[in-house]
Write a structure and sequence with these properties.
Blueprint lengths: L10 H5 L28 E2 L1 E7 L9 E5 L2 E7 L5 E5 L13 E3 L2 E3 L6 E2 L5 E3 L17 E4 L2 E6 L18 E12 L4 H4 L5 H6 L13 E2 L3 E10 L3 E10 L3 E7 L3 E11 L2 E11 L6 H26 L14 H12 L2 E2 L7
Antiparallel strand pairs: 1-19, 2-11, 3-4, 4-5, 6-7, 7-8, 8-9, 10-11, 12-18, 13-14, 14-15, 15-16, 16-17, 17-18
Bound molecules: FE2/S2 (inorganic) cluster (FES) and fe (ii) ion.
FE2/S2 (inorganic) cluster binds next to loops.
C-alpha cells in the first residue's frame, strides 16, 4: 500500500493556485471572534483531512464522498496508491464516481473524457482538442492508519500525521468513522485536548499540569501529562496535535494504547474518524492485538460519549475565560492564525 505523498500538479493548477488569504474573512480578524460552527462554502484551514476509510477504496472501484465544501472521487492506481480528485466532470458535470478506471486514469462515462491522476484531461472523444481548463483538482494524497488523507491546499506545508513514539508503518490500525456533530468546526473537538477545565469536569480526569510544558510548533503542538483516570487509574498520555483537525494519543498505563482522532468537515456536518492502533509485533497473537485495539476503542468511545453530551448544539464563542482556559485561548489564536485554502474552489 502506498504511503508516500503524491500528486502531480497540472499546469493550470500551478498558474492559479486559488490560495485563500486571511483577508477573505474580514469579520474574523480578531481570534476572539473565531467561528466555531460550519458554514456552507467556508474556507477551511490547510491540512491533512481524512476523506475515506482505506477499506472503502477497493481496487478497481471509484468511491464518491462529500468532502469539505464539495465532492471527491477516490480510486486506486494500479500500484494501489490512492488518488483523490474533485468529482464533477468539467465537460458537463457528470459525477465521476459513476465513471470507470482505465489503467491509472478516470474515465467519465457520460462522454468519455479521461483524466490522469494529476487531474489533467488525458483525452476527449473523437478528434477534438482538449479544451483548456478541462481538469480536475487532484489533492495531495497519502494513506496511513487505515485512512485515505487529502491535503486541503496546493502543496503540503507539513507532512501527514504521525503518532508519538511509533512510526505509522510500525502500527496495526483499525479505523472507524462516525458522523457526530452538526455545525461544529473540526478544531473544537480536537482542541478538547487543550481544554483542561473540561478534562477535569467532563472526563473526571485528575492532573497537576504546568501549561508552559505545551510545545507549540508552526503546525504541531505536543505535551505529556499524567492523569488519574476513574476508568484506567494512573496513566501517562503523550499527545500530539497536527494541524487544526488531528490529535494523536499514546496512553501508557497497565498497557500502552495508541489512538488517532481526526475531524473532517463535510458541508455543515462534522465527521469524526477514530483509529485504534497497536504496535506490530510478530510474537503476539491476533487475539491479544485485537484486545488492545478494543481497549483503545472503548477508551475513546467513553471520552466521546462524554464530549457529545456537552458539544451537541454548542454555539461556541471565546467568552469569559478563566486562568485554566489559557491553553484553550492559545489554541484558538493558533487555529485563527493557521493558513487557510480552498484549492478546489474553481473545480466544483
Ligand atoms: S460530462 Fe463527463 S464527458 Fe461529458
Ligand atoms: Fe473531551
Amino acid at each position: 500500500m502506498a504511503t508516500a505523498i503524491s500528486r502531480e500538479r497540472t499546469a493550470a493548477q500551478a498558474e492559479n493556485p486559488a490560495k485563500a488569504e486571511r483577508s477573505d474573512r474580514p469579520d474574523e480578524s480578531d481570534w476572539r471572534n473565531i467561528f466555531g460552527g460550519l458554514r456552507q462554502g467556508q474556507i477551511h484551514p490547510e491540512g491533512w483531512y481524512a476523506v475515506a476509510l482505506s477499506s472503502e477504496v477497493e481496487p478497481g472501484r471509484i468511491t464518491g464522498r462529500p468532502f469539505l465544501n464539495g465532492r471527491v472521487a477516490i480510486y486506486r492506481k494500479r500500484s494501489g496508491e490512492p488518488v483523490v480528485v474533485t468529482a464533477f466532470c468539467p465537460h458537463m458535470g457528470s459525477d465521476l464516481a459513476s465513471g470507470a478506471i482505465v489503467g491509472d486514469e478516470l474515465r467519465c462515462n457520460y462522454h468519455h473524457f479521461r483524466f490522469g491522476p494529476d487531474g489533467r484531461c488525458a483525452g476527449v472523444p473523437g478528434n477534438n482538442r482538449i479544451p483548456p481548463g478541462a481538469a480536475l483538482f487532484s489533492y495531495p494524497t497519502t494513506e496511513r492508519f487505515g485512512l485515505v488523507w487529502a491535503y486541503n491546499g496546493e502543496t503540503p506545508l507539513f507532512p501527514p500525521p504521525e503518532v508519538r513514539d511509533f512510526p505509522h508503518d510500525g502500527l496495526v490500525s483499525r479505523a472507524r468513522r462516525a458522523h457526530v456533530y452538526e455545525n461544529v468546526a473540526p478544531w473544537l473537538p480536537i482542541g478538547n485536548t487543550f481544554d483542561f477545565l473540561h478534562l477535569r469536569h467532563v472526563h473526571a480526569l485528575g492532573f497537576d499540569f504546568d501549561f508552559d510544558r505545551i510545545r507549540w510548533g508552526a503546525h504541531e503542538a505536543e505535551y505529556e501529562i499524567d492523569f488519574d483516570s476513574p476508568d484506567m487509574g494512573r496513566i501517562e498520555q503523550r499527545i500530539r496535535v497536527t494541524g487544526t483537525n488531528i490529535s494523536t494519543h499514546v496512553t501508557v498505563g497497565s498497557s500502552t494504547t495508541v489512538g488517532v482522532t481526526t475531524a473532517t468537515p463535510v458541508g455543515t456536518s462534522l465527521e469524526l474518524y477514530m483509529v485504534a492502533c497497536a504496535p506490530k509485533d510478530a510474537t503476539r497473537t491476533p487475539e491479544s492485538i485485537d484486545a488492545e485495539l478494543r481497549e483503545q476503542e472503548r477508551f475513546v468511545d467513553n471520552l466521546l460519549a462524554d464530549d457529545i453530551r456537552v458539544m451537541t448544539g454548542i454555539a461556541f464563542r471565546a467568552g469569559t475565560f478563566l486562568q485554566e482556559d489559557q491553553p484553550m485561548a492559545r489554541w484558538l489564536r493558533w487555529v485563527h492564525a493557521f493558513p487557510v485554502a480552498d484549492p478546489a474552489a474553481r473545480y466544483r
